[in-house]
Design goal:
By secondary structure, this protein is mainly beta. 1% of the residues lie in helices and 59% in strands. It has a 22-stranded antiparallel barrel.
């Protein structure tokens, strides 16, 4: 049957999970890739309710953001956007929803609801998930109507900070085996988690979000044609994240702030996709995935963390995207192959404001306004083949050829005079202008435009050996690619708005997977080495001036281990560990040699461990305890680490987070179709920073520091039918 049908899914062991990491359904234990995969129920049991929390359960994965759940920065094995924060940049970790690439990062941090599973693929995916995936891929697979019966669930919960959550799904089969529909939604509203001591201003970090998704599944005559159409919409209206900025005006508590202009982070996302599968023969099938989407970012935030008017930022952006992937899958006895073509188009229109106290003269406020449009097109052809050299030895070869075409146009920026939140009077054009601020008279019609293009050949080669016991050993080489990029942070001068080189990663990996001790113990191990070239990052200098540059050479090596032991039906243990040594071999920023420094968001050690224990029943239902520990060693937020540029005002020692352990947990009681759950995150109220950005180097008397969330807890009730 077609790829999406239930019949196409192989039988799984009781503790198994089926993944589509190689564009076909396979047991995770038979895929020669380092993968963490969890079902929707497993995510819920671990307290993972949005994409930003995946770092708690995936080794060598860090998720940080300057704006909370908005626009997350994913870092896998040290590969990330580094200190780049502009919304026009694409993540080197491909984020997919039902195999559709979510290009803009604003759409990657939403809530997780009604999921079948999530798959996190570590390592560059330069063949089958080829668009800009130098670090890996995260694929969220949502539930699809099964075409049999009616079902659903409803869940409601309440937590501290007056937080109310509700979600549910309803599935109905109109024609058995032929036509079904499923609708799912989630809603969350809560007060700010960071108390603002400034009079009359709201607290920071509040949430107000709504997401809805509808899925239509059609299989005419229960035949070879299978169609899945999904549409989604979401909106979020929370207050900005807290900023620890000017220390002299800081609030007394770590989870308190003192800000006079709390802004709102507003986002909107809409889209639809159609997946059409057709079984041409028992061994050959065709799949087409067409998707269109758009989004909106309207974020305003006080970036100085103080009651003074020093720095306010406004980011407004509109996003549009379209993609089409068409591929053939062949599954023979000795050969399995997938081949196809891909086209992607996306557009970003940005309008950003930077209000700076005394920007014009002492006591005379002003700042910069920036506008530009960016359009990118990607064309690719790809193929991958698995050949059985012997009954136990499989060779894999895959190639992808990509052509990227990009345009930056309608670009302009100017220096203005005006009070914070007041009327802006343009004074000087800064883009297009190749000389210093204040040297080009204001020209309302002046525009700046440049173009960029790349071609790249990437791919994969692997050998896999499977023992009679089912234990799998593999060795692989993967080459990943992230296309060149425009500097979205250039607004004081057009000389720095350039198209920089693409990134490349040559990744070497060996791994093993298997089940032992009468299949009670599941193990997955991987060791890797990366040759990483041209990482794209920011160099911020007084002015303020930001340059987008390439780090010529970096290297990363390390390992990961994941284990699950099921001692009995009532007790199981899970644990994972990751070691990462990611450093720059060649890098100079602001005239400072940074060779040997750690890459940003690349802690040496990450680990998590927990268990699920149901020691007894209460009122006919098991009571399950599920505590979890999450450890992260020291990490830096800047390529400078703790080094300061010579002759500058940097204090980069502030831009790091020391080692910490966070304790999470849940208690669940289930009887029949009712589930009660109590949960807690950051039980011990660990005080940590989630993000840091150098602003002292840009001439401000503080750095931009974002604290991570305090303790949160609550309870929920779930009813399935």
């Amino acid at each position: 049957m077609p790829e999406a049908s239930a019949e196409a899914t192989p039988a799984a062991a009781p503790d198994d999970i089926i993944v589509t990491a190689q564009r076909r359904s396979q047991s995770i234990q038979t895929v020669p890739i380092a993968i963490t995969a969890l079902s929707g129920d497993q995510l819920g049991n671990k307290g993972v309710t949005n994409a930003n929390q995946l770092g708690q359960i995936v080794p060598n994965l860090q998720i940080n953001s300057a704006m909370g759940d908005t626009q997350p920065n994913f870092a896998l094995r040290g590969v990330s956007v580094a200190n780049e924060y502009n919304p026009n940049q694409v993540s080197p970790i491909g984020v997919y929803i039902d195999d559709v690439n979510m290009v803009n990062r604003v759409g990657q941090g939403g809530g997780l609801y009604d999921l079948q599973r999530v798959e996190v693929l570590r390592g560059p995916q330069g063949t089958l998930f080829g668009r800009n995936t130098t670090g890996g891929a995260i694929n969220f697979i949502t539930n699809t109507p099964t075409l049999s019966g009616n079902r659903g669930y409803a869940e409601a919960g309440y937590g501290n900070f007056n937080t109310f959550k509700a979600q549910g799904a309803l599935e109905t089969t109109m024609v058995e085996d032929e036509l079904g529909f499923r609708v799912a939604a989630t809603y969350e509203k809560g007060d700010g988690k960071f108390r603002n001591i400034y009079p009359g201003q709201p607290d920071a970090g509040s949430v107000d979000s709504l997401q809805v998704r509808g899925t239509l599944h059609i299989r005419p005559g229960a035949g070879p044609l299978d169609i899945v159409i999904k549409a989604y919409a979401s909106r979020a209206n929370g207050t900005q994240q807290p900023i620890k900025g000017l220390a002299a005006t800081a609030a007394p508590g770590f989870f308190e702030i003192n800000e006079n202009r709390i802004g709102q982070n507003r986002t909107r996302q809409y889209g639809t996709s159609a997946k059409i599968s057709y079984e041409l023969s028992p061994r050959l099938s065709f799949t087409s995935i067409t998707a269109i989407g758009n989004g909106l970012l309207d974020a305003a935030f006080d970036a100085d963390g103080s009651p003074l008017d020093i720095l306010d930022l406004q980011q407004k952006a509109k996003f549009d995207q379209f993609s089409e992937e068409a591929r053939f899958n062949y599954e023979g006895k000795a050969v399995k192959a997938v081949a196809g073509v891909f086209y992607g188009w996306d557009k970003t229109v940005s309008d950003n404001g930077f209000d700076i106290g005394s920007a014009i003269a002492p006591g005379v406020d002003g700042g910069f306004f920036q506008h530009f449009r960016q359009v990118r097109r990607t064309y690719a052809v790809f193929g991958q083949t698995d050949v059985n050299l012997t009954p136990k030895l499989v060779a894999t070869v895959g190639l992808r050829y990509s052509a990227d075409r990009s345009a930056y146009d309608d670009g302009y920026a100017y220096l203005f005079m005006g009070a914070f939140g007041g009327t802006r009077t343009p004074l000087f054009t800064t883009v297009p202008c190749t000389t210093g601020v204040g040297t080009c008279p204001y020209d309302a019609n002046a525009r700046y435009a440049i173009k960029g293009r790349n071609n790249a050949l990437t791919g994969r080669a692997a050998l896999t050996y499977t023992f009679d016991s089912g234990t799998l050993l593999y060795a692989s080489y993967n080459r990943g690619y992230r296309s060149g990029a425009f500097n979205g942070g250039g607004y004081t001068n057009s000389a720095g708005i350039t198209y920089i080189k693409p990134e490349y990663v040559n990744a070497y990996e060996i791994g093993a997977k298997g089940r032992f001790l009468d299949r009670r113990l599941s193990l997955a191990l991987a060791a890797f080495y990366y040759d990483y070239q041209n990482q794209q990052l920011q160099d911020t200098r007084p002015g303020p001036v930001s340059f987008l540059l390439n780090a010529p050479k970096s290297e990363s090596y390390g390992f990961e281990g994941e284990a699950t032991y099921r001692a009995s039906s009532r007790f199981s243990v899970n644990a994972s560990v990751g070691y990462l040594h990611a450093t720059y071999k060649e890098l100079t920023l602001s005239g400072t040699n940074l060779a040997g420094n750690d890459l940003p968001f690349a802690p040496r050690w990450t680990a998590q461990g927990g268990f699920d224990w149901a020691p007894f029943d209460i009122a006919g239902g098991p009571l399950t305890f599920s505590p979890n520990l999450n450890y992260v060693s020291r990490q830096f937020f800047s390529p400078f680490n703790a080094v300061n540029a010579a002759g500058g005002a940097q204090v980069n020692s502030e831009l790091q987070q020391g080692a910490y352990i966070k304790v999470n947990g849940a208690i669940t009681w289930t009887r029949g179709n009712v589930t009660l759950r109590a949960w807690v995150q950051n039980l011990l109220q660990e005080k940590t920073l989630a993000y840091g950005l150098d602003l002292r180097g840009a001439g401000f008397p503080f750095n931009y520091l974002v604290p991570a969330q305090p303790r949160t807890y609550g309870g929920s009730v779930r009813f399935t039918f």
